[in-house]
Amino acid sequence: MVFSDQSFVFLFMPIAILTCIAVLRTRLFHLAILFFSLTFFYWSSGALTLILIFSITLNYAGAYLIHWFRRRWVIGLLIFINIAVLAYFKYTYFVLGTAGFFGSEEVGKFAASIILPIGISFYTFQGVSYLIDVWRREVPPEPNIITFAAYQAFFPQLIAGPIVRYVDVTKDLHSPKFSADNFAAGAARFVLGLSKKVLVADAMASVAEAAFSQGTDLSFASAWLGAIAFTIQIYFDFSGYSDMAIGIALMFGVRFRENFNHPYAASTITEFWRRWHMSLSSWFRDYLYIPLGGNRLGAGRTYANLLIVFVATGIWHGAAWTFLLWGLYNGAFLILERLFLPRRLDGSIGMRMFYFFPVVIVGWALFQSPDLATFGTFVANMATPFTVGAFSLPPEMMVAFTPYSIAIFAFAIAAILMQGYARPAGVMLENATTPLAKFGRLSFIATLAAVCMIFVLTQRYSPFLYFRF
Fold first, then answer.
1. pLDDT by residue (tens digit) across 244-292?
2. Omega of the bond prior to 162 within 30 degrees of 0, cis?
3. 3-state secondary structure at position 43
4. Does residue 109 contact residue 75 with C-beta atoms inside 8 Å?
5. Which position among 174, 262, 277, 317 bears the catalytic label?
6. pTM of the predicted model, to two decimals?
7. How many other β-carbons are positioned within 10 Å of the β-carbon of residue 274?
8. pLDDT tops 60 at residue 424
9. What is the mean pLDDT of the chain?
10. How many Cβ atoms from other residues are within 10 Å of residue 418's Cβ?
11. For residue 152, what are the contacts with CB-CB under 8 A and spacing of at least 6?
12. Which ranges constitute the DSSP H helices of 175-320?
């Protein structure tokens, strides 16, 4: 079940929200959140829900062990167990295959039988952040296991984030900020996120899939159009999910931090990572980069720390050489920008158009490529505009480029180029103060919701890209 499913939009979400609102001022509120969250996860993952329950139990009890004993080996062991569980499910197949163990039929069957629990990267990092914050005395251990379980399993962010820290939501969990205004704002945010997913991201998915499925049969045009389509898809897909998660939580009276801040308005890779998937970026900054020494130990150590962080970022996204190389790719550009980028060029239009966008698009081509050979083909074709058939498109891409997808492609590019200069949807949703503006906002949201419902009722199943992480 995903947020754009008919079953979620028309059945699960309304029942969950109305039930939790009905018991808002009672002791049943957190129990209701936990019930619906575990139901949501079981609907998607079945018996793998036990892994989530194990993580909740481990981190709830572990926080008290840290609080009572205050020994480094205790928190070290707890973090190790969390990461070991994640590594087992996420990296066993990759490690065994890389090490050459698949020559054994039994090993191959064992590795292939391991199913990755949906959302394990997100709820594992939430648990680790909670343990570290308890160790740092930034929060006390949560006394009520139901309340803690409701935090770690809270279904809006369970599958694809944002990575929500306990310190950021503990007040709202204990005293939900439910109001008519928050509910309306949350509903509007959910509709905006749903529109990003079903109106834009899904339209670009068919174009990107057609390009990345071609193997070596690519041209200059098909490589660039496919990479640009994926650049559009991943932003509207992932930011759409984050908008929906933030909106649903707000309808419950719980406020999440923002996860995106117009990342394509950046002009450098350094700035991009301050704006993209901010909950993950800040997590690695606070729990890995700064403990490693950050930028306090000289230039050489700073660059080494940046590479370590971005290797970890790449591996966090998936168990493949493409993700590892993607992390190194981004880390290398951060270091190059620190070394050679003149500050007077940072933020200029030229930097954005002729440096930032090409680097990001090539990076996303690497991210989406199933293997390094496919990426090599992409890069080779993106760099050769003067060959025979350079501007031809394969039949699959011709089919994918329907009048609707062409219109969405053009709209999305315009919206991306406008980032940092105008926010029409944001203005419509946030800055309505006069009666006429409020009526306009309501009309805009209602129209957008109606269009989204039509798409939800007619489109095929389309999971979010970050479900696989």
1. 999 999 999 999 999 999 999 998 999 999 999 999 999 999 999 999 9
2. yes
3. helix
4. no
5. 317
6. 0.92
7. 14
8. no
9. 88
10. 14
11. 52, 55, 56, 59, 123, 126, 127, 130
12. 180-195, 202-212, 220-252, 269-275, 278-284, 299-317
Tokens of residue 445, six digits? 């949201």
Task: Provide the token pair at 32.
Answer: 């209701």
From residue 245, alpha-carbon distances to 2, 46, 155, 305, 389 in Å are 11, 22, 8, 31, 44
- Provide the residue type at 433 as one letter: T
**CA–centroid distance for 46 within its chain:** 22
User: Encoding tokens for residue 261?
Assistant: 């801040």
3-state secondary structure the chain: CCCCCHHHHHHHHHHHHHHHHHCCCCCHHHHHHHHHHHHHHHHHHHHHHHHHHHHHHHHHHHHHHHHHHCCHHHHHHHHHHHHHHHHHHHHHHHHHHHCCHHHCHHHHHHHHCCCCCCCHHHHHHHHHHHHHHHHCCCCCCCCCHHHHHHHHHCHHHHCCCCCCCHHHHHHHHHCCCCCHHHHHHHHHHHHHHHHHHHHHHHHHHHHHHHHHCCCCCCCHHHHHHHHHHHHHHHHHHHHHHHHHHHHHHHHHCCCCCCCCCCHHHCCCHHHHHHHCCHHHHHHHHHHHHCCCCCCCCCHHHHHHHHHHHHHHHHHHHCCCHHHHHHHHHHHHHHHHHHHHCCCCCCCCHHHHHHHHHHHHHHHHHHHHCCCHHHHHHHHHHHCCCCCCCCCCCCHHHHHHCCHHHHHHHHHHHHHHHHCCCCCHHHHHHHCCCCHHHHHHHHHHHHHHHHHHHHHHHHCCCCCCHHHHC
Instruction: Pull the structure tokens for residue 386.
Output: 């003067």
pLDDT at 235: 95
With a cut of 80, say whether residue 332 has pLDDT above it.
yes
DSSP code, position 24? T
- CA–CA separation, 211 and 217 (whole Å): 9
**Which two tokens mark 125?**
């990092």
Place of tokens 């389509």: 229
Would you call 67 a catalytic residue per the annotation?
A: no
> Dihedral sign, CA of 338, 343, 346, 349?
negative
pLDDT digits (tens, 9 = 90+) for 288-313: 999 999 888 888 899 999 999 999 99
The structure tokens 């609102």 sit at: 21
DSSP 140: P
Say which amino acid occupies 17: I
Determine the angle formed by the axes of helices 72-98 and 120-135, rounding to 10 degrees: 160
